[in-house]
Amino acid sequence: MTSEDLREEGAPAAPLTRRELRERERAAEAALAQAPATPVALVSTGTAALPVVLTSTTAVTTHSVPTATVPLTTVMAPSAPVAAMPVAVPAPPVFTPEAHAEPVIVKPVKPGSARARRARVIRDAHRSRPSAPPSSSSSPALARKRAAGKLVSFAALLFAGAILVSLTVPSSLFFANHADSAVDVTAAASASADVSEAAAAKVTPVQTIAPVDDSVKETPVTRDAWDVVSGAELAQVSYGARTTAYSVDNSGAVRWPFEYAASISDGFGARVSPCSGCSTSHKGTDFTPGEGAAIYAIADGVVSAHDVSAWGLGNHVIIEHVINGKKVTSVYAHMRSGSVALKAGDVIKKGDFIGLVGMTGAATGPHLHFEIHLDGVAVDAFTWLKANTAS
Q: Which structural domain range is residue 283 located in?
């Protein structure tokens, strides 16, 4: 039931709905379009202002609060009078909760606001939503795909069955002479059974052990001779089979480095390395008279070098000689630190003091490492001293 029906029945007037207001506005605009010079007044209905056509004797009362009377002369236009349009002015509304529900007010959306942006996103999402795919019944491609899948599944089942048959059925069944093959197999089985029975019937004699006669004697076993030798003994056999006996006579042009016959611990040539970093090819003779023993020059000469190192020859002196018209070089190594006062260029006479026995450099104990070089080539110092001294 509309607000017009309520007015005809005498019921209290209700506010006009948005649709009724829009229809009245359209009707008023149409009337104005047909009669452009007609006087018009705006009548408030409580929710909106409606255009109303006025006559020369009509007064308009607005229902806005407070109520006011609009004279005709204030809204008349200077034009010819037209037919009067009756206007129904609604009575003041009476609030009843049962008859009046709160209208839904749709607020206008401002362009560029967050609400407008959300509405645009929702509208675009609805527009870009893909259409529903065609049903399977109306898609020939899908039907062909399903048919192909069924054919592949059927072919796979056939292939699996063929493999099963090939693995379980004997291959002789696929040949024409499978009956002859079966007979051959039976004959071979019977022949094998006969051989097994014959082997079982044959009795193997039991092995017996005859008693040993007292006249039989055990034959001796010939073995190679062998012995146990330590590493030190092996080194002595390999490298130490040298004669080191000598006597001292220092009256000639060449003398021994000591006043007496000092013991010799190692000679010239190949040897087992006595320490880490020591050489396996010994180029001198090691005299062991004891730590601190005095060392003397073997002949006249000139000091060519005096060096001190933490490895190798340690504190050592090199002297150049001319003996029997040949260039001879003598080396005195491993001497005690601080016991040598010589320097390169010093002139040496036979028997001059060189230094004291020590163990500097690569040494396992206090000793004098003595070398002889003839024209730059190392020779056996012990053999050379025995040949060139007066002893």
A: 235-388
Q: Is 82 helix (H, G, I), strand (E, B) or coil?
A: coil
Residue 153 zone, left/alpha/beta (φ > 0; ψ -120 to 50; rest)? alpha
Residue at token pair 């207001």: 21
The CA–CA distances, whole Å, from 383 to 118, 289, 354, 390 equal: 115, 19, 22, 13
* Mean pLDDT, all residues of the chain: 73
CATH number of the domain within which 307 lies: 2.70.70.10
Copy the structure tokens of residue 210. 């005859």
* Residue 176 lies inside a defined structural domain of this protein: no
Pairing of strands 285-287, 281-282: unpaired
The count of domains in the chain is 2
Of the given ranges (23-37, 57-71, 236-250, 265-279), which has the lowest mean pLDDT? Answer: 57-71
The alpha carbon of 157 is separated from its chain's Cα centroid by a whole number of angstroms, namely 46
Q: What is the CA radius of gyration of the chain?
A: 69
| pLDDT tens digits along 352-361 | 999 999 999 8
- What is the secondary structure of 290-358 as a DSSP string? -TT-EEE-SSSEEEEEEE--SSTT-EEEEEEEEETTEEEEEEEEEEPTT-----TT-EE-TT-EEEEBB
Q: Is residue 38 part of a domain?
A: yes
Look at residues 47, 74, 101 and tell me which one is the last residue of a structural domain. 74
Domain boundary residue, one of 74, 93, 113: 74
| Sign of the four-CA dihedral 165, 169, 171, 173 | negative
Bridge partners (DSSP) listed for residue 335:
315, 357
Q: Which residues contact 104 (CB under 8 A, 6 or more apart)?
A: none
pLDDT tens-digit map of 13-47: 567 788 888 888 888 888 877 755 545 455 545 54
